[in-house]
Write a structure and sequence with these properties.
heterodimer; A: mainly alpha; 13 helices; B: six-stranded mixed sheet; three-stranded antiparallel sheet; globular
Chain lengths: 292, 256
């Protein structure tokens, strides 16, 4: 009898959150975030672009604040901010005396500073904090439709770009000789990061985007043995961590964006620890020259 | 591109000078590369081997002279430049050679994959197609990169120090592959620092900012030519063959 009660209460705890439309929309958003963020995050991590993924949300801040000031949709303001940031980063990266990280630093700190100036304006409406921390429970059906469309765009673009991204990540110089246009591939990847950031920022806020974009892919890098399975693993980690974050937020009554980001990072730390155990247990693989 | 060439001539350079920006870093290069030949490209670091390859590929402008290409040309880079931690399979790497041959929006077709598997088979790695590139041995990785060039139907292969980091057994296997490719009509230009390794090949091209010599090993691997090519970087081994076996100014290369 006691067991039945326990099972029933556990079942209630599992099912309860999904009785509300708010949580159902949040779960759908987590699914979309996980697909776009998990797939793209792998290229971010493999390509050493984690810093870009961290910087872009900050760089879009003036666009978001500007949209709030003008009464425009946040998605539109964020899109404009991200496109400006992406183009500025791409332009600054072409300055030969600047390495890419320096170029990104210059651009994103400048834009974030501009955003703060705008945010301190007397005309700035309340609710700017939502831009920083997100509001996944406040998403409307319209927001979900926009996120779904952007996710489809990201996935389709990644499918088309897949061979070129493989070649560039494997050997950048050789990729150029093989016929890959490095400039356009780089720019498209940054634009895709920008679009994915746009999907994430409304739900998770400016400050938590990088955790969702980078951490699942970092787990996949530790455990994935092939490119496509790694990307699917990253999606699974992102979605499951997001769902777990929603449960945590619902039952512990804590901020949802922070819960999702926190769970994702904890999963990453567990994956790191497990990988260390794995590496200790396994004997070092010996590659023999004069092979078969 | 001008000049009448023998049908079997895959590559001809006639008085070529090229370089980066305004400066000419390589001058006076003249040689013919017939089908089926293996040609060593010897020279010190900065002597012009990479510049020559980039000019042949068309990446650098030919300032003086002409380069006649009668076949597809492909470069086989050093494996050390590749990302070994990137979980890409040998087949994926070979498929990269098909990118230029299809529209940007089209994924690899079944025919592309079949061609890639055929290329892997031709280098003896058909059973390694699904193995991660980083898990292969150094010699196997080099052969995968050769397969990537072959899938482009390239008949002129520019090999950038392919023996770097290989032990003697792997180097011999690579030699065997190069012999097979030459026998099937491919022309191989092989940048190397190993003088002894050049002995059985058809010709040696010596570069040091300009062409020092070009011809059969018996005529080019002489103390005078090698000293003009390498200057003070030459290590003389009196007990080895003709007395000159290894070039000392390079940190790579495998010893014999």
């Amino acid at each position: 009898m006691l067991d039945a009660v326990t099972v029933a209460s556990v079942a209630d705890a599992l099912v309860d959150p999904w009785r509300s439309g708010i949580m159902q929309r949040a779960a759908l958003e987590v699914l979309l975030l996980g697909i776009a963020g998990g797939l793209l995050g792998c290229w971010v991590v493999w390509g050493g672009l984690s810093f870009s993924a961290e910087a872009l949300p900050h760089a879009m801040f003036p666009g978001l604040v500007g949209a709030a000031l003008l009464g425009m949709p946040l998605v539109l303001g964020g899109a404009v901010g991200l496109i400006v940031a992406a183009l500025l980063i791409a332009a600054a990266s072409r300055i030969q005396t600047l390495d890419r990280d320096t170029a990104i630093s210059v651009v994103f700190t400048s834009l974030f500073g501009l955003g703060v100036l705008l945010a301190l304006s007397p005309d700035t409406p309340a609710g700017v904090s939502e831009l920083l921390f997100g509001d996944i429970l406040g998403l409307t059906s319209g927001d979900l439709i926009v996120a779904a469309v952007l996710t489809v765009v990201v996935v389709a673009a990644l499918v088309v770009l897949h061979p070129r991204l493989l070649a560039v990540t494997f050997d950048r110089e050789a990729a150029r000789v093989l016929g890959v246009r490095l400039g356009s591939t780089d720019t498209l990847l940054i634009v895709l990061i920008a679009i994915t950031t746009l999907i994430c920022v409304q739900a998770l806020g400016n400050l938590f985007v990088a955790a969702v974009l980078v951490a699942p892919a970092a787990v996949a890098r530790l455990w994935g043995r092939r490119v496509v399975p790694s990307m699917l693993l990253a999606v699974a980690v992102a979605v499951l961590s997001g769902i777990a974050g929603l449960y945590l937020s619902f039952h512990a009554n804590v901020a949802t964006g922070a819960s999702i980001a926190g769970v994702t990072v904890i999963v990453y730390l567990l994956a790191v620890a497990a990988a260390r155990v794995r590496d200790r247990v396994r004997r070092p693989k010996c590659v023999v020259e004069g092979e078969a | 591109m001008s000049g009448t060439v023998h049908p079997e001539l895959l590559l001809r350079l006639d008085g070529v000078a090229t370089g980066y920006g305004e400066s000419l870093t390589l001058r006076d290069v003249t040689f013919d590369a017939p089908a089926g030949s293996q040609i060593a490209v010897l020279g010190p670091n900065g002597g012009g081997k990479t510049t020559l390859f980039r000019a042949i590929l068309g990446e650098l402008p030919t300032r003086v002279g002409t380069i006649t290409r009668n076949a597809e040309v492909a470069i086989v880079p050093q494996t050390e430049r590749s990302r070994l931690d990137f979980p890409v399979s040998a087949l994926d790497v070979v498929l990269m050679g098909t990118i230029a041959g299809r529209p940007w929006w089209r994924p690899a077709s079944r025919a592309d994959r079949d061609a890639a598997r055929d290329a892997l088979r031709s280098v003896g790695l058909e059973d390694r197609a699904e193995i991660a590139f980083g898990a292969l041995s150094g010699g196997q990785r080099q052969r995968v990169l050769v397969a990537r060039a072959l899938v482009r139907r390239a008949r002129v292969l520019l090999l950038d120090e392919p023996y770097t980091g290989l032990d003697t057994a792997s180097a011999k296997r690579l030699d065997g592959l190069f012999n097979e490719l030459a026998a099937s009509g491919h022309t191989l230009l092989i940048a190397t620092h190993d003088v002894a390794q050049c002995q059985p090949w058809d010709a040696v091209l010596c570069l040091n900012g300009r062409q020092i010599a070009y011809g059969p090993p018996s005529e080019t691997l002489t103390p005078e030519v090698l000293e003009a090519t390498y200057g003070g970087g030459l290590l003389r081994l009196d007990g080895a063959g003709d007395g000159l076996a290894v070039i000392a100014d390079h940190h790579h290369g495998h010893s014999h």
